[in-house]
Specification:
The protein has 216 residues and is mainly α. The protein contains 7 helices and 3 strands; from the N terminus they run αααβααββαα.
Length: 216
């Protein structure tokens, strides 16, 4: 009677061993499949690659030093793109550089409106609406007076550095402000041009701190 019992025990052990091996294979296969999964590629046509950090190790030396070496009364925008042709890359890189400058101007306006609102009795809702009107106008502006300071290719990517002088910035903001005043009369007393000197000085100091942080 012992032999049949031994046979049953052996079969049971073999069955358990087979199940264990199958589980081990499934677990190993699953882990490998997880390791092999990759994030979906990001299309380079995305327009939101702006605000490029000068700490980017792939950035050309000329582009990396563009902000540090710029005069105090100049805004700098840096854009990069890697598309099918050089012409396409140049166009998108320039667009992104201009967008970066527009974003900087919008930030300047936001800070000025915030300070003005804090020191006046103007309605907060009106201030927000006014700020939005100017931001939209600046985003649509072609930044007349902006010039390409440097452009070039590195590692297949095209880089463009655009500069816009303080005088041109004041003009752009002035035009945007005139349109915003028509839609938000409550902000008629706000004069962005008179606040630009202080805003530029603050912006310069902030950029200097960021550049020093990157270098050290």
């Amino acid at each position: 009677m012992e032999r049949p019992q031994r046979k049953v025990a052996c079969k049971t052990l073999v069955g358990m061993a087979s199940i264990f091996m199958m589980l081990l294979v499934m677990l190993t296969t699953g882990c490998n499949s997880i390791k092999e999964k990759k994030s979906p590629p990001v299309s380079d046509t995305s327009p939101n690659i702006i605000g490029i950090s000068t700490s980017d190790h792939n950035m050309p030396t000329k582009a990396a030093s563009a902000r540090r070496d710029a005069p105090r009364d100049v805004l700098v925008g840096i854009g990069t793109a890697k598309l099918g042709t050089i012409n396409q890359s140049r166009t998108i890189a320039a667009t992104r550089a201009r967008t970066e400058i527009s974003n900087v101007m919008s930030n300047v306006i936001r800070n000025m409106v915030r300070d003005y609102t804090a020191s006046s009795e103007v309605d907060v809702g009106a201030a927000v609406a006014y700020q939005e009107e100017i931001t939209v106008s600046l985003s649509k502006s072609n930044l007349s007076g902006a010039e390409i300071w440097w452009e070039g290719e590195q590692d297949g990517s095209w880089w463009t550095v655009i500069r816009l002088s303080k005088g041109d910035v004041v003009r752009e903001i002035g035009m945007a402000q005139a349109a915003a005043r028509l839609k938000v009369p409550a902000m008629a007393s706000f004069d962005a041009e008179k606040r630009m000197n202080e805003a530029f000085e603050q912006l310069f100091e902030e950029e200097k701190v960021l550049i020093q942080a990157v270098e050290y």
